[in-house]
Design goal:
Number of strands: 17
Structural class: alpha+beta
Length: 357
């Protein structure tokens, strides 16, 4: 049930903060991601449609002839004046909290609903992003579920509800941390599979650092069966030639944005194979935590490292979301050999959510 609620809330927030049509293509996988953490509440991270999107086009490296790619021709990009201001974005998020957030079931009175908007969210080793200034500052909007419930029941009005919100720009850390970038790259490398019968990382890893809470990494995975295939499309069909296996092949290198979608016919795969593949995927995540988490900044003992995985598959026996959470004090104790590996692994909490059956 929680998974269904989060899916709905993600799509609503995406629509509210969206300003243009190119987000529908999700060229950089800039979609809102929701994470439910027991004893805290729900955190939504919204990657900003940064001006770096323009830089993606400017720095696009043409593919070699013969490589399987697709090109989306682009016209004039959105002028900076057309983008929503920080005030407009905050108004949309407050509207979301007032009108929709009460529908998140399983939340209790003291649980928090936090919405994080940040320009520093997407980190991907697949694209060489240049160092760019932040156009809009990151910010967080936080409230308790009991306040949302009070507004929906008419016990407080809009002005009173607004005073109950905590809106802060200082909560989102924007400082560069090489150790975190290395951790993310190691995570991407280990979770990329591209082999049949495995779960494979899809898209980039969304990264947020929230003061007084910790580091949140979220990402998605798909199962690759033997029947998986890739679909490519282009707005310039003259540049492509149909080829066998349902693919198209570039005849001339082009400039634009590489777009592809992978499909997997998992209905022919047994539940046991899916479970085995997921165990292997999760073992890789735990291995990364034990090997590299100690290299991160763990100076705040009560802060946490959170890894949230959205699993794109339809089997009701496989979780649709898994969240791993470990406190910095336990990471430090393990690094200082005060905790053995088995004891450290037991300190890594994991929360699993399934499709509504």
């Amino acid at each position: 049930m929680m998974d269904k609620d989060l899916n709905i809330m993600e799509s609503i927030l995406d629509k509210l903060v969206s300003t243009d049509d190119y987000r529908r293509i999700h060229l950089t996988h800039n979609s809102t991601r929701g994470i439910f953490i027991p004893s805290y509440g729900v955190i939504f991270t919204i990657p900003a449609p940064r001006s770096a999107f323009d830089l993606l086009l400017q720095n696009f490296r043409a593919f070699e002839s013969g490589e399987h790619v697709a090109v989306v021709n682009h016209g004039q990009m959105m002028d900076g004046a057309d983008r929503k201001s920080t005030e407009q974005l905050q108004e949309e998020i407050v509207y979301f909290l007032q009108q929709y957030a009460d529908a998140i079931r399983q939340l209790k009175n003291q649980d928090k609903v936090t919405v994080i908007y940040s320009n520093q969210t997407i980190q991907s080793s697949e694209v060489s992003w240049p160092s760019t200034p932040v156009v809009l500052p990151g910010f967080t909007v936080t409230t308790h579920y009991k306040d949302i419930d009070a507004f929906r029941e008419g016990r407080v009005n809009a002005e009173e509800f607004s005073k109950m919100l905590s809106i802060r720009s200082s909560d989102v850390t924007q400082e560069k941390q090489p150790a975190l970038a290395i951790f993310i790259n190691a995570l991407q490398t280990m979770l990329h599979s591209r082999s049949a019968g495995t779960f494979d990382l899809v898209g980039p890893i969304s990264q947020i650092q929230l003061n007084d809470f910790g580091t949140i990494l979220s990402f998605e995975t798909n199962f690759l069966s033997a029947n998986s295939f890739e679909y490519y499309f282009s707005t310039d069909p003259e540049a492509f030639l149909s080829s066998g296996g349902g693919r198209v092949q570039a005849q001339n290198p082009g400039s634009g944005v590489n777009v592809w979608t992978r499909f997997s016919q998992i209905d022919t795969v047994s539940t046991e194979i899916l479970k085995k593949a997921l165990r292997s995927f999760e073992d890789n995540i735990l291995h990364l935590i034990t090997q590299y988490a100690a290299t991160l900044d763990v100076s705040q003992p009560q802060a946490s490292l959170v890894l949230a995985v959205k699993i794109n598959q339809l089997s009701p026996q496989i979780p649709s979301r898994v969240v791993y959470k470990v406190q910095n004090k336990d990471i430090r104790a393990f690094a200082e050999r005060k905790l053995q590996k088995d004891a450290f692994l037991k300190r890594i909490n994991n929360f699993r959510y399934y499709h509504l059956q």
